Amino acid sequence: MPKRALTEKRPWLLASLVAAIGYYALIMTGQPVGEIWLMLVKGAGVALLAVYALQRHSSFAARLLALVLILSALGDMLIELSLIWGGAAFFASHLAAIALYLRNQRHISTISQKVLGAALLLITPIMCWLLTRDPAVTAYGVALGAMAASAWMSRFSRYRVGLGAVLFVVSDWLIFYGIGHPDGSMIPSLLIWPLYYCGQFLIATGVIQTLRQELPDAA
């Protein structure tokens, strides 16, 4: 059984990793690739994680996770055309993620865990405002912070899903830093994609791992 499960799981995760690494290599080396093709490669990284989620579990939570990832993949592609369009797709993704995490809240949390969840909820939009001074970005930051806070307080692994949500927040902060400081260092822009994709990878695998441990027959 473990061997069969690994055989089923590996192709989609491997394909996702190949697409994500391939996209990063293309943009770093400046290879001449058509804009549409580059957008498709970028979107494939997270879209294939959605396929992985659907293949690994048949529960409603897995389907909701797949929706979160598909909306994020759409945002990955649309943001290449318009920051507003891409942001709208990610905003919808955060709302779907909040619904997923609120449906799967942890019953017992320590004081420190609650404090960190509250900090993510409050500090995230504040940082968005400080970095851009843009009300629309700050409004987006409210959804981003609520997503991260609800992920941290959910019953899913904090070392995967919670950490993945925090990496997502940091990657967005780096994007907003670039908006507010267009003449700044190039180092933040080099970190955006690795942090973002690693965050999504941890979220996808962390949620599915928990679901498979609790309901293996639903796979």
UniProtKB/TrEMBL annotation:
Keywords: Membrane, Transmembrane, Transmembrane helix
An example Gene Ontology CC term for this record: membrane
Keyword Membrane: yes
Transmembrane segments: 12-30, 36-54, 61-79, 85-103, 115-132, 138-154, 161-179, 191-211
InterPro entries reported in the protein's UniProt record: TMEM86B-like
Bilayer topology: Multi-pass membrane protein
Compartments (UniProt record): Membrane
A Pfam family that the UniProt record links to this protein: YhhN
GO molecular function: hydrolase activity
PANTHER family: GH04784P
Annotated family: Belongs to the TMEM86 family.
Name of the featured protein: Lysoplasmalogenase
Organism of this sequence: Pontixanthobacter aquaemixtae
Highest classification ranks of the organism: Bacteria, Pseudomonadati, Pseudomonadota, Alphaproteobacteria, Sphingomonadales
